Task: inverse folding
């Protein structure tokens, strides 16, 4: 089994850029797609990135995803931060028998 | 517009079985392009995948819950269901049903609003 580790929290100012990491404990990050979900307080999650770097329709291009095999991690980058981006963000991936979510990162835009 | 709605008891006693149903509207549960899944979130904590099911009845379960979980589908009612046996306080969570794209581990494109289930005597 594997785990996905995210920073507990990050904060940045409006208009700036923030990157949230997601490190896979075992198995190659590049072998299985990574998804990213945004969850605002009191709401269900929504997808902001799927298949490592694809944006669903309606998600602004300020959101981007990438994979770094050297650190075995995925990243979610949000540029031009807005107060509405303040939320919890979860990465998710899988192996042959399980799918796993990261512990979540609380993004504060202050 | 696809909608998913969870339903079931909000309070379950320890050692009993938690039962939830997800009703799908605005689309067919029998579509070959999707799996259907359950995810839970304990209060103040992160997300945990419980399991996924195809309209044919094929299932995939989280190994840590597999011995206690059964997910089933009723295509005639456009519903799928979750049963979790021998519950404890650790099973208290918001339970979400969801539509999963293409494969049992694929991205989720629609989520239900979630329903809080509390395990307590």
Result:
């Amino acid at each position: 089994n594997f785990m996905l580790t995210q920073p507990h929290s990050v904060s940045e100012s409006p208009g700036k850029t923030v990157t949230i990491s997601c490190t896979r404990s075992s198995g190659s990050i590049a072998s299985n797609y990574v998804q990213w979900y945004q969850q605002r307080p009191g709401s269900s999650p929504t997808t902001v990135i799927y298949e490592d770097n694809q944006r669903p329709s309606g998600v602004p291009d300020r959101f981007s995803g990438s994979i770094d095999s050297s650190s075995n991690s995925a990243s979610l980058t949000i540029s031009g931060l807005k107060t509405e981006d303040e939320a919890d963000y979860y990465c998710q991936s899988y192996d042959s028998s399980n799918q796993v979510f990261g512990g979540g990162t609380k993004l504060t835009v202050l | 517009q696809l909608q998913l709605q969870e339903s079931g008891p909000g309070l379950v006693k320890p050692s009993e079985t938690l039962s939830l149903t997800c009703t799908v509207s605005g689309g067919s549960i029998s579509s070959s392009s999707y799996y259907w899944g359950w995810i839970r979130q304990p209060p103040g904590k992160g997300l945990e995948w419980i399991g996924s099911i195809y309209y044919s009845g094929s299932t995939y379960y989280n190994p840590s819950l597999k011995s206690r979980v059964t997910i089933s589908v009723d295509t005639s009612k456009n519903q799928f269901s979750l049963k979790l046996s021998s519950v404890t306080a650790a099973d208290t969570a918001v339970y979400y049903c969801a539509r999963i794209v293409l494969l049992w581990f694929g991205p989720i494109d629609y989520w239900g609003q979630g329903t809080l289930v509390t395990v307590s005597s």
Notes: Chain A touches chain B through 23 residues (CB under 8 Å).
